[in-house]
């Protein structure tokens, strides 16, 4: 006998003792033993332990019984299935016993066992299926495994709905709710028809309550499945709202809430009737007269208000009044409508908004909190789903206008509520005000005097809870930061004392919020960006003292430490000139915080803030010690610290250059080379900006960079990753370097260093260096030439000779042409007579890169030499058909680089020439023409847009496609004067979605996509008419599919594929920019079809499905059964054995993309309640190949965050 078996036998023996303490201790020891993973029982021990624990359930001592129940849980996983069956059978038998105590304890035991059961043990549970008290736990855990018992379970549970015991009816409803997600459509139909049938018979009120509760539960758990029955169910429920029974009304509104939340589209025909009912019963309070309250003086003191409240509480008490439940359920139903129907927002502001505001006076706290919650939901819906739009000319949304009109009424209603003694009420008020301030920033200015007393009351009242104070401070912070400083100047004397008091509060969260408010107050007392008449001097001392106390404290929360440092930084930045002797000791504290690893990041940010203050705070005493410390931070492996340190050093070098002695500068410069790396372009950019700044203010400091920093800079110039901000910082660096003569290297030395790799390259390959590095070096050469114009003319001559020289390598010729183009943007080439011929000769080069460089050069040279080169270029376009594409590229370069003023005199000539080529057979040429037309239109939109519209009527499809593509190039991602004109006429251009020509429709979809991506406001109002045409283009057209014979093989060609791709790309863009305007169920219909389409379309729709699962999970869950099948088909499809390698790779990529979509679907809560999804998830887990792919995606960042796709 093993030690464990012997020990267990002893425990079992003690459990038979007559002493209850022995039995208790033995059961407790057994429980501890069973919780160990290492325990293993033999068959005999298993049988004895199970028998003993089941016997202990009948123990006379309640504590022993409870311990026996606790032992059953861990025991399930330690014994064989036959023993689990014994446990379940015994517990089920006990539950039909005559002894009530045994029934109750066995019920708890069975629940514990079920919670630990695996689906493989389900055979042991069939007896529990008819036991209503346990069924909901069983279904929740094992509903899909009980499919074969569903019919008998349903029959048993429906019978229990007529039980005389309310608890039985309630448990039966819960059990039915757990059964619904996994039952078959036929069974669901049987359940709903039974409930509708019973309701239509007009049963007693108690039964009606049960059936309506059951319908609400079925809707919540079954979601969309009840949608098809709602047109029959809703009128019945509406009828029962008129029955004089408050509890029944409450259940009716709960049912409406479930219907609206789960099936918003199906509820559309009934939504007005339900809103009307909700508005009727939200004011239903037959036992209370609100008019008496309304007549009272609104300006009563808070103390008087409290006394009055106390009296009214003593006088009025009605425990039997259930009307508040009706009001609460109607409010919750309204909130569900608001949250699910943003399309009704304007209407809701007209009808629901004023009613909710009028009910802020509600006497019952629970109802009042829900009323506030409903109004907050209305405010949240008013916010644009994707933040404020940048579109110019976009009209103010009607809902915003309606809300602005209601603000005075809302504030008046809240003014009184903020004086209420109920903390829940005041917290809700602050939540509502915070949301309203975020929706309408700067619009509460005139109401500040009405809001301040309520805020002060909540901050100073001794009975105020911590959470209420935090909410009041958070609202005050939002209020201060979103309004003009002048509005608050009269109230500073009232606001500051309670805020200072909160800074000294012992609870760290209150202190933290109060420090943020203090910081905001400091900023508005003396704004640095504009002069104000307010004198903040009287308040500086108290603000400084309370912040200093927190700044010095070492034993406080990290959050408070950081907020105190930053708050003090703002005090120094705004009032440092008034601190006198307190300034330097405070700076020394900052220095100490720099030495602390925990606070150094926020200390660096704060020093940057102080150093950038226009008050020129004297930081010199701390620079000697602080600068080397900051220099050492540049070595740390903490990116945020590096970035903020470089920013701080930049500010200090600019504003305190006279304090930077050589040793201090060396301590910084020695760390810079390691920062200039292509692996982190942003840090490289700010590091180069720093050394540029140093070169400007103390040029001598860079005398030694030739052997350290410059090699890294040159490596970066030649990097293929260099572009944007990093490239611009390099250009400025080179210009400052030659202008200040900060380094021993002059203009010619730097040119040599930049161009060296291209001239020294022995490779015959013109692209031995990356293409991007040619353009980067050319820009650097041009920047140097701009700084040294006298020496530049000689360099231009040399560049022309390099292009002419037949011995020059291709890389030298390409670079020289690009350099000529970049220099030609600002330099007059009047003296270079042979340049035109050299460029035109380069157009004839056999090397495509040389041709492209020559095209770039000609276009950019035109910028500064317009009079000479533009007529030449236009003439060449007309007379050189073979070089037309390259010459049009040159024209595009010129139009892109020139300002509108410079272009205006030449628009007519260019426009006429372009229209001569808009019907070119080559699509590439037409696209260049379209881009030129689009960019020219931006120069003079009012004149040129009508011409484009006129051209739409052209009989040529090629011409129409060019015009539509041109419109695409007028839609850019930043505000432009053309926007208002486009909004009025874009509908005419989008009519080409109905064009008979396939290619015109494709470019129209691309233009539609561009508008949706860059300026959604242009098309939001047109979506109702545009979407049917968009969806039509997602369908496969058999007349566009043809077979092409390729030798012995037949190849299928789908001419409609490109149009479908454009349509699906447009749909994806609309998800991000206009989702609130989409009928998501109609949208999902087309996504579903796309899941069965061509490889390219499938890849797009998988990404869309993953995105949809994040944006609208409830709608996706409703369509899950239909979406799973195509996903399953993709994941299980196998490529034929004899296929080429590319086919295997394509299928593998398809499967991975489908699996990402599956992973996104599985992240939706309760998604596995869908039988189809649960089955597919099990199939993935059981299939080694699919499980491997799925597991590999768990660490893939794309599976956590949905793949991004730029379709613009």
Automatic annotation (TrEMBL):
GO terms for biological process: SCF complex assembly. Residues 1018-1180 form the TATA-binding protein interacting (TIP20) domain. It comes from Cyprinus carpio carpio. Residues 290-321 are annotated as: Disordered. Residues 291-321 have a biased composition (Acidic residues). Pfam families: TIP120, TPR_CAND1. The lineage of its organism: Eukaryota, Metazoa, Chordata, Craniata, Vertebrata. This is Cullin-associated and neddylation-dissociated 2 (putative). Coiled coil: none annotated. Belongs to the CAND family. Keywords: Repeat, Ubl conjugation pathway. InterPro entries: ARM-like, ARM-type_fold, CAND1/CAND2, TATA-bd_TIP120.
């Amino acid at each position: 006998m093993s030690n464990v078996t012997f020990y267990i036998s002893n425990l079992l023996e003690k459990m038979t003792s007559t002493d209850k303490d022995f039995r208790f201790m033995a059961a407790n020891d057994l429980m501890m033993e069973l919780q160990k993973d290492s325990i293993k029982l033999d068959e005999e021990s298993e049988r004895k332990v199970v028998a003993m624990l089941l016997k202990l359930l009948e123990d006379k001592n309640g504590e022993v019984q409870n311990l026996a129940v606790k032992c059953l849980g861990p025991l399930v996983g330690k014994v064989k299935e036959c023993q689990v069956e014994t446990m379940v059978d015994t517990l089920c038998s006990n539950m039909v016993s005559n002894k009530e105590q045994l029934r109750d304890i066995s019920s708890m035991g069975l629940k514990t066992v079920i919670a630990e059961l695996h689906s493989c043990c389900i055979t042991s549970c069939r007896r529990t299926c008819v036991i209503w008290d346990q069924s909901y736990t069983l279904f929740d855990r094992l509903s899909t495994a009980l499919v074969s018992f569903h019919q008998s379970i349903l029959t048993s549970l429906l019978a229990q709905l007529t039980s005389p015991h309310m608890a039985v009816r309630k448990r039966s409803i819960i059990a039915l709710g757990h059964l619904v997600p996994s039952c078959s459509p036929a069974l669901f139909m049987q359940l709903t028809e039974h409930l509708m049938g019973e309701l239509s018979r007009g049963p007693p009120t108690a039964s009606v309550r049960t059936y309506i509760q059951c319908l609400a539960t079925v809707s919540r758990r079954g979601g969309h499945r009840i949608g098809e029955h709602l047109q029959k169910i809703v009128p019945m429920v509406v009828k029962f709202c008129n029955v004089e029974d408050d509890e029944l009304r409450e259940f009716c509104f709960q049912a409406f809430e479930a219907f609206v939340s789960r099936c918003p589209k199906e509820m559309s025909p009934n939504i007005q009737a339900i809103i009307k009912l909700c508005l009727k019963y939200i004011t239903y309070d037959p036992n209370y007269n609100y008019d008496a309250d309304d007549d009272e003086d609104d300006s009563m003191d808070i103390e008087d208000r409290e006394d009055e409240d106390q009296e009214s509480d003593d006088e009025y008490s009605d425990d039997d009044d259930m009307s508040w439940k009706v009001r609460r359920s109607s409010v919750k139903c309204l909130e569900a409508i608001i949250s699910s129907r943003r399309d009704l927002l304007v209407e809701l502001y007209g009808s629901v908004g004023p009613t909710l505001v009028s009910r802020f006076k509600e006497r019952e706290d629970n109802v009042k909190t829900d009323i506030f919650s409903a109004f907050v939901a209305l405010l949240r819906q008013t916010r644009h789903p994707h933040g404020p739009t940048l579109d110019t000319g976009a009209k103010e949304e009607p809902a915003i206008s309606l809300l602005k009109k209601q603000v005075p009424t809302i504030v008046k209603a809240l003014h009184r509520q903020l004086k209420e003694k109920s903390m829940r009420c005041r917290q809700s008020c602050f939540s509502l005000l915070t949301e309203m301030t975020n929706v309408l920033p700067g619009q509460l200015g005139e109401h500040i005097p009405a809001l301040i007393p309520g805020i002060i009351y909540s901050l100073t009242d001794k009975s105020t809870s911590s959470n209420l104070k935090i909410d009041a401070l958070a609202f005050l912070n939002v209020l201060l930061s979103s309004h003009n400083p002048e509005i608050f100047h009269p109230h500073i004397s009232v606001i500051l004392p309670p805020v200072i008091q909160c800074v000294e509060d012992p609870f760290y969260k209150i202190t933290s919020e109060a420090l943020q408010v203090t910081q905001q107050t400091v900023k508005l007392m003396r704004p640095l960006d504009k002069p104000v008449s307010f004198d903040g001097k009287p308040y500086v001392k108290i603000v400084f003292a309370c912040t200093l106390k927190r700044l010095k404290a070492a034993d406080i929360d990290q959050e408070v430490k950081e907020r105190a440092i930053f708050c003090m930084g703002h005090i120094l930045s705004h009032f440092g000139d008034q601190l006198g002797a307190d300034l330097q000791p405070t700076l020394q504290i900052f220095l100490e915080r720099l030495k602390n690893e925990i606070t150094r990041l926020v200390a660096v940010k704060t020093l940057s803030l102080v150093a950038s203050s226009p008050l020129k705070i004297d930081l010199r005493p701390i620079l000697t010690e602080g600068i080397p410390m900051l220099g050492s931070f540049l070595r740390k492996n903490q990116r945020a610290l590096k970035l903020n340190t470089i920013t701080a050093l930049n500010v200090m070098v600019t504003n305190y250059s006279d304090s930077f002695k050589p040793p201090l500068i060396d301590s910084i410069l020695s760390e810079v080379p390691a920062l200039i790396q292509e692996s982190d372009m942003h840090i490289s950019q700010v590091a180069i900006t720093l050394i540029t700044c140093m070169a400007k203010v103390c040029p001598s400091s860079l005398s030694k960079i030739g052997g350290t920093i410059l090699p890294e800079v040159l490596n970066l110039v030649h990097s293929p990753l260099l572009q944007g901000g990093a490239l611009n910082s390099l250009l400025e660096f080179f210009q400052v370097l030659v202008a200040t003569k900060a380094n021993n290297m002059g203009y010619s030395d730097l040119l040599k260093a930049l161009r060296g790799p291209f001239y020294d390259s022995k490779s015959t390959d013109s692209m031995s260096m990356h293409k991007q590095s040619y353009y980067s070096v050319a820009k650097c050469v041009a920047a140097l030439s701009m700084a040294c114009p006298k020496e530049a003319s000689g360099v231009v001559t040399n560049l022309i000779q390099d292009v002419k020289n037949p011995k020059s390598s291709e890389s030298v010729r390409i670079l020289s042409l690009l350099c000529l183009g970049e220099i030609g943007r600002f330099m007059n080439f009047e003296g270079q007579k042979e340049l035109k011929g050299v460029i035109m000769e380069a157009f004839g080069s056999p090397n495509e890169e040389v041709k492209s460089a020559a095209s770039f050069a000609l276009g950019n040279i035109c910028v500064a030499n317009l009079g000479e080169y533009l007529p030449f270029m236009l003439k060449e376009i007309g007379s050189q058909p073979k070089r037309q594409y390259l010459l049009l590229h040159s024209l595009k370069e010129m139009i892109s680089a020139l300002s509108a003023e410079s272009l205006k005199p030449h628009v007519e000539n260019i426009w006429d020439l372009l229209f001569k080529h808009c019907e070119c057979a080559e699509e590439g040429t037409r696209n260049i023409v379209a881009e030129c037309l689009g960019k020219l239109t931006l120069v003079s939109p009012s004149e040129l847009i009508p011409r484009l519209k006129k051209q739409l009527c052209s009989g040529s499809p090629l011409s129409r496609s060019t015009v539509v593509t041109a419109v695409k190039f007028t839609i850019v991602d930043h505000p432009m004067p053309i926007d208002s004109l486009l909004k009025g006429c874009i509908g005419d251009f989008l009519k080409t979605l109905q064009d008979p020509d396939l290619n015109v429709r494709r470019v129209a979809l691309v233009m539609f996509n561009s508008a949706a991506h860059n300026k959604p406001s242009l098309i939001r109002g047109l979506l109702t008419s545009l979407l049917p045409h968009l969806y039509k283009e997602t369908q496969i057209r058999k007349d566009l599919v043809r077979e092409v014979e390729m030798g012995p093989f037949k190849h299928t060609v789908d001419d409609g594929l490109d149009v479908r791709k454009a349509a699906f790309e447009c749909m994806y863009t609309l998800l991000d920019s206009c989702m609130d305007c989409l009928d998501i169920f109609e949208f999902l219909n087309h996504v579903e079809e796309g899941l069965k389409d061509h490889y390219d379309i499938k890849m797009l729709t998988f990404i869309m499905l993953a995105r949809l699962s994040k944006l609208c999970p409830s709608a996706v869950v409703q369509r899950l059964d239909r979406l799973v099948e195509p996903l399953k088909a993709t994941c299980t499809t196998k490529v034929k054995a004899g296929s080429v390698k590319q086919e295997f790779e394509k299928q593998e990529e398809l499967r991975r993309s489908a699996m990402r979509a599956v992973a996104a679907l599985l992240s939706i809560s309760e998604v596995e309640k869908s039988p189809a999804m649960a089955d597919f998830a099990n199939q993935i887990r059981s299939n080694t190949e699919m499980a491997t792919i799925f597991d590999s995606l768990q660490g893939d960042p794309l599976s956590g965050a949905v793949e991004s796709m730029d379709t613009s």
